[in-house]
Protein backbone atom coordinates (compact mmCIF):
# COMPACT_ATOMS: atom_id res chain seq x y z
CA UNK A 1 0.00 0.00 0.00
CA UNK A 2 1.18 3.45 -0.72
CA UNK A 3 0.73 6.35 1.64
CA UNK A 4 -1.47 9.19 0.56
CA UNK A 5 0.23 12.50 -0.03
CA UNK A 6 0.20 14.75 3.00
CA UNK A 7 -0.37 11.86 5.41
CA UNK A 8 2.69 10.76 7.39
CA UNK A 9 2.96 7.49 9.20
CA UNK A 10 4.30 7.57 12.75
CA UNK A 11 7.81 6.13 12.65
CA UNK A 12 9.67 6.18 15.93
CA UNK A 13 8.13 9.05 17.78
CA UNK A 14 9.29 9.30 21.38
CA UNK A 15 12.42 7.16 20.96
CA UNK A 16 14.63 10.15 21.86
CA UNK A 17 12.85 10.33 25.21
CA UNK A 18 13.58 6.68 25.92
CA UNK A 19 17.24 7.12 24.97
CA UNK A 20 17.46 10.29 27.06
CA UNK A 21 16.04 8.63 30.15
CA UNK A 22 18.38 5.65 29.71
CA UNK A 23 21.38 7.98 29.33
CA UNK A 24 20.45 9.96 32.45
CA UNK A 25 20.04 6.71 34.39
CA UNK A 26 23.49 5.60 33.27
CA UNK A 27 24.97 8.93 34.36
CA UNK A 28 23.36 8.59 37.80
CA UNK A 29 24.79 5.09 38.25
CA UNK A 30 28.29 6.21 37.20
CA UNK A 31 28.11 9.23 39.54
CA UNK A 32 27.06 7.04 42.48
CA UNK A 33 29.88 4.59 41.83
CA UNK A 34 32.36 7.47 41.65
CA UNK A 35 30.99 8.90 44.91
CA UNK A 36 31.36 5.50 46.61
CA UNK A 37 34.97 5.19 45.46
CA UNK A 38 35.65 8.73 46.69
CA UNK A 39 34.09 7.90 50.07
CA UNK A 40 36.30 4.81 50.36
CA UNK A 41 39.40 6.88 49.58
CA UNK A 42 38.45 9.50 52.16
CA UNK A 43 37.76 6.77 54.73
CA UNK A 44 41.13 5.16 54.01
CA UNK A 45 42.93 8.47 54.49
CA UNK A 46 40.97 9.17 57.71
CA UNK A 47 41.93 5.75 59.09
CA UNK A 48 45.59 6.14 58.09
CA UNK A 49 45.85 9.63 59.61
CA UNK A 50 44.08 8.51 62.78
CA UNK A 51 46.41 5.52 63.15
CA UNK A 52 49.52 7.63 62.56
CA UNK A 53 48.50 10.27 65.08
CA UNK A 54 47.42 7.72 67.68
CA UNK A 55 50.74 5.86 67.40
CA UNK A 56 52.69 9.10 67.71
CA UNK A 57 50.64 10.11 70.75
CA UNK A 58 51.33 6.73 72.32
CA UNK A 59 55.08 7.00 71.66
CA UNK A 60 55.09 10.52 73.11
CA UNK A 61 53.24 9.29 76.20
CA UNK A 62 55.92 6.63 76.78
CA UNK A 63 58.62 9.29 76.79
CA UNK A 64 56.61 11.33 79.30
CA UNK A 65 56.00 8.32 81.56
CA UNK A 66 52.25 8.00 80.86
CA UNK A 67 50.31 4.92 79.64
CA UNK A 68 50.65 4.93 75.85
CA UNK A 69 47.43 3.13 74.92
CA UNK A 70 45.24 5.50 76.94
CA UNK A 71 46.70 8.48 75.10
CA UNK A 72 46.49 6.68 71.74
CA UNK A 73 42.80 5.86 72.33
CA UNK A 74 42.06 9.47 73.26
CA UNK A 75 43.63 10.77 70.07
CA UNK A 76 41.94 8.08 67.97
CA UNK A 77 38.54 9.19 69.29
CA UNK A 78 39.41 12.81 68.53
CA UNK A 79 40.11 11.79 64.93
CA UNK A 80 36.79 9.88 64.61
CA UNK A 81 38.37 6.43 64.37
CA UNK A 82 37.94 3.43 66.63
CA UNK A 83 41.12 1.97 68.12
CA UNK A 84 40.91 -1.80 67.76
CA UNK A 85 44.31 -2.72 69.20
CA UNK A 86 47.23 -1.07 70.93
CA UNK A 87 50.48 -2.91 71.65
CA UNK A 88 53.57 -1.58 73.40
CA UNK A 89 56.90 -3.31 72.85
CA UNK A 90 59.65 -1.45 74.59
CA UNK A 91 59.57 2.12 73.32
CA UNK A 92 57.49 1.27 70.21
CA UNK A 93 53.70 1.58 70.06
CA UNK A 94 51.64 -0.19 67.40
CA UNK A 95 47.98 0.73 66.93
CA UNK A 96 45.24 -0.61 64.66
CA UNK A 97 42.24 1.62 64.01
CA UNK A 98 39.05 1.38 61.96
CA UNK A 99 36.45 3.75 60.60
CA UNK A 100 33.13 3.27 58.81
CA UNK A 101 32.49 4.35 55.25
CA UNK A 102 28.88 4.62 54.15
CA UNK A 103 28.54 3.87 50.44
CA UNK A 104 26.89 6.53 48.28
CA UNK A 105 24.82 3.82 46.63
CA UNK A 106 22.87 3.50 49.85
CA UNK A 107 22.98 2.05 53.32
CA UNK A 108 21.02 -0.99 52.17
CA UNK A 109 24.14 -2.37 50.46
CA UNK A 110 25.94 -2.50 53.80
CA UNK A 111 23.11 -4.63 55.20
CA UNK A 112 23.09 -7.14 52.34
CA UNK A 113 24.72 -9.80 54.52
CA UNK A 114 22.64 -9.08 57.60
CA UNK A 115 22.53 -6.37 60.23
CA UNK A 116 25.62 -5.80 62.29
CA UNK A 117 27.95 -7.78 60.02
CA UNK A 118 29.78 -4.72 58.78
CA UNK A 119 30.81 -1.45 60.32
CA UNK A 120 32.27 -0.39 63.60
CA UNK A 121 29.82 2.29 64.61
CA UNK A 122 32.54 4.92 65.01
CA UNK A 123 30.16 7.76 64.29
CA UNK A 124 31.76 8.63 60.98
CA UNK A 125 28.52 8.81 59.08
CA UNK A 126 26.53 5.67 59.64
CA UNK A 127 25.10 3.27 62.13
CA UNK A 128 26.80 -0.06 62.78
CA UNK A 129 26.28 -2.31 59.83
CA UNK A 130 25.48 0.53 57.43
CA UNK A 131 28.71 0.56 55.43
CA UNK A 132 32.17 -0.79 54.99
CA UNK A 133 34.94 -0.80 57.57
CA UNK A 134 38.34 0.58 56.65
CA UNK A 135 41.27 -0.39 58.88
CA UNK A 136 44.78 0.97 59.21
CA UNK A 137 47.85 0.17 61.29
CA UNK A 138 50.68 2.46 62.39
CA UNK A 139 53.81 2.05 64.46
CA UNK A 140 55.78 4.79 66.22
CA UNK A 141 58.78 4.97 68.48
CA UNK A 142 62.07 6.75 69.00
CA UNK A 143 64.36 7.25 66.02
CA UNK A 144 67.58 5.27 66.39
Enumerate how many helices there are, as a single number: 3
Please provide the count of β strands. Answer: 3
Unreliable residue stretches? 110-128
Question: Structural class of the secondary structure composition?
Answer: alpha+beta
Compute the gyration radius: what is it? 26 Å
How much strand?
15-25%
Strand order of the largest sheet: 1-2-3
Number of domain modules: 1
Distance between the termini: 95 Å
SSE ordering: HHEEHE
Sketch the major β-sheet. Answer: 3 strands, antiparallel
List the helices and strands and how they pair.
Elements: H1 15-63, H2 68-78, E1 82-89, E2 92-101, H3 107-110, E3 132-140
Helix pairs in contact: 1-2
Q: How would you characterize this protein structure?
A:
The protein is an alpha+beta fold and 144 residues long. It has one domain. The protein contains 3 helices and 3 strands, in the order ααββαβ. Strands 1-2-3 form a 3-stranded antiparallel β-sheet, with helices on one face. It is rod-shaped. Residues 110-128 have low confidence and may be disordered.
Summarize it.
This protein has 144 residues and is an alpha+beta fold. It contains three helices and three strands, in the order ααββαβ.
Notable characteristics:
single chain, 144 residues, alpha+beta, three-stranded antiparallel β-sheet, 3 helices, 3 strands
Amino acid sequence: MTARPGCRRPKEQGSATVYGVAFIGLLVVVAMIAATVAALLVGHRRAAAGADLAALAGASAIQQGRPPCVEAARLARANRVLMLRCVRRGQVVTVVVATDVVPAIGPAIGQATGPGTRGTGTGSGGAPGSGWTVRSMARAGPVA
